[in-house]
Amino acid sequence: MAARTVDLKKSSLAEDQRIEERQAISAWNATIFQDGDASLTYGNVVDITGSGACLVVSKETSWIAENTTMTLHVEAEHRRFTRKAEVRWLKTHGESLHFGVHYIDHVGFDPDTHQLNIDEVKVCPTCALKLPGNIALRQKALPFLLQDNVTHIACSAPPNSQTLKLLERFVKTEIKLWQAPENLLTIKLKQVYGSNPGQPVQALPNAAANNNQDSAVNLGDDLLYAAYMRQASDIHIDPSFDGATIRFRTDGQLEVYNKTNTHVYTELVSRLKVMANLDIAEKRSPQDGRFSHQFVAGERRIDVRVATLPTKYGERVTMRLLAVQTDSLTLDKLGFTFKHQDMIETFLRRIQGMMIMTGPTGSGKTTTLYAAIRMLMAERNVNIITIEDPIEYEIAGVAQCEVDAGDKVSFAKALRSILRHDPDVVMVGEIRDKETADIAIKAALTGHMVLGTLHTNSAAATVTRLLDMGVEPYLVAAALRLAVAQRLLRRLCKHCRIARPLTELEAISIGRPELKQKMIYDPCGCIYCGGKGFAGRIGLYEMLELNEDWARSVADGEGESQLVLKMREAGIKSLLDDAIDKLIKGETAIGEVIQIASSW
């Protein structure tokens, strides 16, 4: 008994010594929220791991005790995350309270009881293709996530011991099995591996692999397939002095996918240039091209736009992936409020007038216009012709015209010709100059519905931009019926988001100090979102509907500032207002909204 007491004293002295030697990690701060209470405490992070952390707060923080649960929000210079946590130990040291927490799985998914909705799972291609397609289809098993050296596998039934050994031999990590409905899993397996069970699938390369052994053809195919599976919008290949970095833009964020050596990079660029019909001998001038890529058994296809740019260490390649499936492009899936969707649908039921989508590149303007076209086609029989640069989605029943890089087919030339083809609806991919704007407005005044896009920062700025192009104010007032400003924010994963109060500093940063203590949600990460905390993106909208009085004001020469004042007096919400509404509803995170507020 005496020996045990001595051991405990030694352990306590050792812990005291470790606390004295520890120093707070530079720029790592924590905001600690008491569960079931709006009160919060600020502290410093001493050390941190993937499963817990050690923190320091003032000794006066009386509510922290062993087994207390809390919500922990940690911010570092380039990282922020939120976790549910439980206090495992605490010790007073001078005027400070040191305590250790262990993260809690607040989602509570148990492989033994939870049936996986495989349709909502983000499949990691590097993980999935560790298992050959013929085996995956035969065993009804889909590896979809590698996390903390554990491979998560969806299966339709509990596998036997031989199947487990087979899976472990291929994935080479610990395995965690999740049950999924057999019919949905079969569909997902065919999407990942194709429908030919006898056709093996190449394993994707990774940073640790010897890429010299991979042919340029296989590497290019694997790269495109990985981007397709991750639902990436762009692939970036950036050369450096010792090779190249390959990155994907997924949900608007860049993530590193792979790194290759110089030899593999050179072969890969040559392969991609051949596919895009570019001159492989020309390395000192920018080039643009495109190609269509067919995946397994001809079941899936993507269109790829390729651009090269000479840099110090070689050609930089950027590829934009353009999906050819448009079944999901409907207005009710884009994040419109009921009022906003009603305004767009009301306009689309007209027979003439102009609607302009506005926003920066990549803000989803064209996607919204395609969704509007699908609604028009579903409700009535109309002749729709589009002018695009490039054609991003193929829509059956729509005549789509692509602008030619050699200026044989420009927006203005194509639009002038289209009006002789008896269209009901004309979509102009981008209004870039006075000539295109004039023809589009005159088309809207002569009985056509015109849909178009512009690059401005707000809905009211649409009027200013058209006037700057040289369009007469009375023509803008007569033709423009609806201007829609749009942005995209990442959407929180609905399975793992964590609720907490909005802090005073955060409320001030978005210009709404009155929202202090309002409940919001933070990203966390789970098996559905691949540990990211986000799943897809959601649109923000600001709508300016030119009624008779406002149109008369535009014709009289009123500018953007007067229109904005009238919009606010009329209670029309700005992009920031829409972002804050979606924040309070738990659809996006405070970090995303701050980006909108900082540019407002």
From TrEMBL:
Entry keyword annotation includes Lyase: no
The keyword Nucleotide-binding appears for this protein: yes
Gene Ontology molecular-function annotations: ATP binding; ATP hydrolysis activity
Domain Bacterial type II secretion system protein E, chain residue ranges per copy: 419-433
Domain of life: Bacteria
InterPro entries (alphabetical): P-loop_NTPase, T2SS/T4SS_dom, T2SS_E_N_sf, T2SS_GspE_N
GO CC, any one term: plasma membrane
Keywords from the named record: ATP-binding, Nucleotide-binding
Pfam family, one: T2SSE
PROSITE patterns xref list: T2SP_E
Family under the similarity heading: Belongs to the GSP E family.
Protein name: GspE/PulE family protein
Taxonomic source organism: Methylomarinum roseum
